[in-house]
Amino acid sequence: MFPPRRFGRACGALLHFGLRAAFVALLLALMPPLLQASAAPGALFSAPGTALAAGGPAFAATAPTLPAARLPARGYWQAGVYYNPFAALAFAPPGDWQPAGDAELLERFGLEEDALPAEGAPYPENPPPGAMLLDMQAYDPLTGANLLLRLHRYAGEWEGYMPALLAALLQSQSFEYESDGQIRPLELAGQSWLYFSVQIKGLRASQLYLARDLGDCALLVNVLAVGGASPDETLDYFRPLES
Question: What is the pTM of this model?
Fold first, then answer.
C-alpha cells in the first residue's frame, strides 16, 4: 500500500506529464481499499436524472430482455447500458466508460468465483446479515471516474444505516477521509436516496456514497472522482427503469 501523501504526489506528477492512462491504472489498483472501506467492522455490518450526455448509448425505457426481478439479482450490461430490474434503475454512461468484467471484479476484490452470480442471475437466497453483494463496477479510463454498485444485507434499522456507514469510513485505517458529516436526501432516477460525500486526503479524490432502502437490503452506490473533478456528473447517467 502506498502512503497516501506519497501516492498523492505521484498522482500529481503523472497528471502533470499527461500520463493519465498510467494514473488510472494505479487508481484502479487502489479501488478495493477505497471502495471497500464501507465494509469495515462495526455494528452496522455485524449486529442482529437529466438528459443523456451527448455521445452516450441509446437508452431503452424498460429492460429489453429480463422481467422485473422478484428476488435480489444482479443487473446486466446490454449495448453499453447497465440495467437492474430488481433495483428499477439503469446506468447509461457515455461511450468512453468501460464495465469491469466478472473475472476482473473477482480478482480486484479478492473473491471466489461462486461469490458473483452471472449477470442477470439471482443472488443466493437469504444472505447473512452484513453480506455485501457485488453487482457491477464501471470506470472512465480518460478521467479516472469510477462507479461501484452493491447490495448490502444490513443489520439494524434503516434510519441508522448511513450514519453508521459514514462513521465506519471516517474511522478507516486505510485512508484519511474528510466529510462535513451531513447526510442529505436526493431524488435520483425517480427514487429517493440518502447520500453523503467524503474527500480522501492526499489523493485529490472525492467520493459520493448513495444508498436506497430495498426492504431487507440496501442498494449502495459509490462514485469516485479524481484530480479535483466532481463526482456529481456521474449521477447524470442514471435513469429510472419501469418494470
Answer: 0.75
